[in-house]
Records
---
Amino acid sequence: MTGVRAPGWEAPVTVTELVNAGTLAGARMYGAGENPVRGVRIVDELSVLGTVAPHTAVVLIGTAASGGWAVEMAMRRAWEQAAACVIAPSGGLSESSGEVLAERLGITLIFVDEDPLLVAVRVASAASRPDAARMQLVARCATRLVEAGTSARRVLGVLNAELPGTSVAFLDRHGVLLAGRRDAAAGGRPEGEAGESVPGWSAQAEVPDQEGGVLGTLVAGGSSRSPGWPSVVRTVLSLAVAPLTAWAARERLRACRDFARQAALAERLLADAAAPEADLAPATGAAGTASATPASAAAVPSAAAPSAASSAAASSGAASAGEEAGPVRMAAVALGWPVRGPLTAYQVRPASGAGDAALAQTLITAALGQVPVTVRGEGWAGWSALDPAELAGRLERCLPTMPWPCSAGVGAQVPGLEAAGESLTGAEAAAAMADPGTVARADEMGPAELLGALPSRALRAPATVILRPLLTIDRDGTLLETLAAVLDEGGALKAAERLGVHRNTVTTRLDRIKTAGFDLDDPATRLALQLACHVMLR
Amino acid sequence: MSRLIDLDELGRFAAGARAFATGAGDSPYHLALDWARSVAGKGVELVTAGELRPQTLCVAVSLAGSTTALGEHLPRGDEPERVVHALERRLGERIGAVVALNLAAENALVPLITAALLRVPLVDGDGSGRVFPLVEQTTYALGGMSPAPLALAGGSGELILLETEAGRVEELLRPVVLAVGGWAVVACYPMAAADLVRVLVPGTVSLLIRAGTPGTPRTAAAPFGVQRLCRGLILSVEGSTGHDAEVSLPSQPSSIVLREPDGMRRLVRLEAHNEIVLALADGAVVATVPDQICMIGTADGMVVDVDEARPGLEVDIMVVKAAPVWHTACGLALGGPRAFGIAL
């Protein structure tokens, strides 16, 4: 049975351990308590103290415990006999003078409320079977940890309560205190530095994260000199690793769930806003519009009357849709999202697949303020009340903070939430077009940007199908290259210049292309072929 | 070689008797002193026990009970005469001298008043060498003398004669003293001068007269030496437990905890049961009865009673050595820690 335990469990228990480990739970101890306890002696009269062996826990009863004077004399004589400690029933001696004398003599005094004879039996058992006493503490800690559940704070509360004389802290991987006592974090030294001769020791246990790295570290320290105690504490710390791992997992889950909730809220807002006007309450009228949405009426110039009206209708519609829409809008407002007036959509697009949405949300809102963040296409999108230039500037500062290389796009400014869809599309296109680390604005995009933004990967398959007749005969790719040059440059002459060949060569190649079944005089065919070439050659 | 205690010496005697006396309130002390001055006349004759004829009947006279009660319930003035005459009637013999039971404050003056009123000499000596709470705790008892027959006179004219075996006197006396008003003058230990010579702590009256002379150090009032144990600041005064319940004393046990303000800064505990019975310093016994342990206030130099002790008071703890007879086995049995309920 002892094989599983670390060395030190068989070492005699110290007085401190008796008090800390439950044998004397609830007792008040005065003095260092560092002496090992090898036996117990029940003393009922002072004269017996002359025959007490060293390292004995002296339990006072009867006349020896009957008054302050008797306890003080017993402490003196126990000290002369090098006893481990004096255990006295509370009430005999005032605790303040007991404390003074314990400090002066350097002998540990323990006041117990229970029957001293019962205490003596338990101390005797702990003294004769120190490993059993320590196992008892570990078992109690395990029970309390189960009760604490998956709260880091409660787990640390249990550790600090059940391991008195010991400070326990939970630190993140950078050494920042997450829970527990700061003094453990400050005083804790790396394991192994604390030797038996050094007053003070420490114990650690690592809490793994989901990838098996280090999420955080439990650090415990104290001043007890018991050789067995650090080993016991280490065991208890390892018991706390599982609940702390569960705590971390639960927190992650909650963050994800929160992201999903806010994303759902954003989608709901967009859906409500984009609903056909026919579905909105018809009776609201002009008066309803004016009174219900003064903010939007003020924010939108009168020149944009139709969109202002529709915006107002959307707002009032959402408001008058009753219990259904109300909570959505309320929740959005509570979150600080822009729900009225001109707004601009954005999209942040990671270069290589989607990352942690909750983290992205955190970083994006840190840069843009309280905005919705939803998953859209290959990135995260939402809208802001900022104008496109300011939004682009914010996104430029945001991108370097993202843990993955990302690009970003900003849509055109639209008058209200009901038009957010088109701004979002523009933002998505701009983001797709932008290089990693840069921000593109949809309202600044030209034809070149549009071509660049073509989803070439998606179009490659249809392009291959369209061009298959050509590709079948085009062994070295010169025909495709020539077709692209002719379509791009608008004629054989310029194409010959671009390719650096004679004009006749180009004409010959065009003839071969036409024999493959392509009618270059048909505008639709030309456009399709030009796109296909662009996709294939990019 | 007899001599007279005149009024001047009376004052010095009273001052000397106060040096280490506990339980001496100002008002009963001055009352006793005024009473003594009013009856002393030209003076009171002081003799040694050896100067008396061996068969002279001597009697110990003392105040019993609370001196505070004496200050509030004034004596009529005839108590000493009535109490001695009662004993004389019982014994069928006139007394030839008065001796003190102990010489603490009023207890020193009452025998002198008695001697003055009866015009008999006062014997130079006492039955204690210090003061003990019980009538039975005397060197007279140690020497085999019995306190009974004992006569008691109260301030309202009461007169009571106790005749019992030696060990029961205190037990019978205490309720009677309470019944007559809290204090009484007692006459006890009737014995021949030849016996008194043997059981007396001699010379203590003249010692106190010398000690009461202005400018004389307090230590002069201790016939067998005095030792200053330490200075201490009173931290707390607590009720105490653990005293043998079989021991019955007029007051409840208490405990005074002090701390040496400098030097070794020891934790000192004075265990009191009627008087300070035991002194511990850091748990080690440094003084016990039968030696007399007393606190002298450093501010005014007055003896601090156990029931006057209060936290914050600074005192010198003095140990007045008891007469050698108290340190014999018999003496310790009668006046040692066990007699006060402390089983060391």
---
Amino acid sequence: MTRKVLSIQSHVVHGYVGNKAATFPLQYRGWDVDALNTVQFSNHPGYGQFHGFRSKAEDLKSIVKNGLVEGLGLQYDALLTGYLPDPEALRQMGSLLSEMCESNPNIKWILDPVLGDNGKLYVSQESIPAYKEILKRGAVFLATPNQFEIETLTGVQISDLNTLKTAVCRFHELYPKIEYVVVTSVDPEPSISDFMLCVCSDRSSKSAQYFKIPKIDVQFSGSGDLFSALLLDTFLSQSAETRDLARAVNEVVSLVDTILLKTLQIHTVQNAQDKSKRINDLKIIECRDLLGVKVDVKYSAFEL
Amino acid sequence: MPRVLATQSHVVHGYVGNKAATFPLQCKGWDVDCLNSVQFSNHTGYGMDKVFGTCTSANELDLVFKGLQDLNDYDALLSGYLPNREAVACMAKNYQELKKKRPQSVWLLDPVMGDDGKLYVNEDVIPEYVSLLESSLIDVITPNQFELEILYGNKVRTVQELKKALQKLHEAVPIIVVTSCSFELFKDPKHLYCVSSVRGQPATFYRVPVIDSYFTGVGDLFSALLLDSTYISHAAEKTPGALDINQVLSIVQKVLAITLEHSPNDVKAAMGSPLTMKEMELRIIESRDCYTSPCSTNDFIYTKL
């Protein structure tokens, strides 16, 4: 049976962020992806300008509730949620998806609490309590905040490994029903470190591991969305008895790193004059063969 | 990587419109920029009371096009189902600008209006498509016979009349593929007939065995694969007559066979029956390897005109 995921994120016509970054890799790995688009933009805002519109909260809700669940009786193996800019839509989808998971515990919800990055909020302030409420309710299986998002959700500022550990512990205290958390793009001392950290923690083991990933001196868009999609596939493809989050995270950060390096390489060949240190679009299609082969892990896990 | 702009419907669940076109093209190495003309929970064959979601308004479409006009030169343009006159006019205006900016791009238009004598768009859509064809900017159209008759302005009851219709439409469009002919043309219940016609050359009839079920999205898959095939033959500067329709039909037949393999034996999809429809969604994902591996190509050629 083909596994089914409902993925609720943004849609850009051009480029690869949100559902455009998540859908193809998941499909290539054999998932039936029901993609519900929270916005339709020409391209992502990182370009400096873009045009488009948001889906209305009531449309998103009726598509899922009246259409997919009640109308077609679809049973999903997984839910994936990302950028959902309208706080009202976030609250409504939050309670609807929570109900779906509560009535069928086989559904695994991977939630990327998209709030912002690098110290900046890029959704409305009202989204913060909405995410907190979703996480408190506890239907989410795995959350993938970045550094700014876990700081916002826990109130703990991360400035070194100790405070990072405090933030992860605090996350488990505040949201005790969430089984797994992976913190991405952790960079407590940006000016002096050559590494980004990625941390994973499982509430039952009382321990957390982290990986040190060499920084690439270029800014990419969509890598977080690609990460959460690949993690969904990799983690849920493990057998439930021998689930190993650190192993899954290592495979995924290794693959994402390879895709970023290949994107950089292609970009450099095509745009020799570009010195901007920012690459707007991941080369997802050029990297498609990498999605179908076994991933060699690149990193070692350290205890946090 | 070649880049295509595809403007057609989006369904959250299932495979029609952009959902049927995008993954196969991506597997073939295309960057697919999908502009969604609607966002529905599922296709309308499930029954209208089972469809939730909204049409993208012409204003919203135009807004997104505005962002795209500054970004790209497209290698190909594809359009399919657009829900109303305003949306067709908006696509027409923007695609003409894009095509003029880059005349070598391949423009495939599927004039989605109806099937089997039934219109499923408003009548005021017809003149929009007719006047768009007259622009002579379109490279390929893929009407079914009903849509061909609408564009031609007359019924087509015989192969001779079909020939006349093709001749007339070739005044504006170099490549015409009629994706399904009416029963009365060949009176052969065992096969579906399609015609490929390149301006200045004899048209070729193809036929494939009929599968007794109701599939949706087949036309959208067909036009996406045909676009790829046309692009490749243009890029290789082959004569346009070298279109590999057999290969396109072979892939489509393979996808249908895989779809049947995955469906329960006793299910035959019927319009308005959600549970049987669900079983007959094209298995676009399971067919991944068909799009790229040179699958054995059958010869579906029936006759030349």
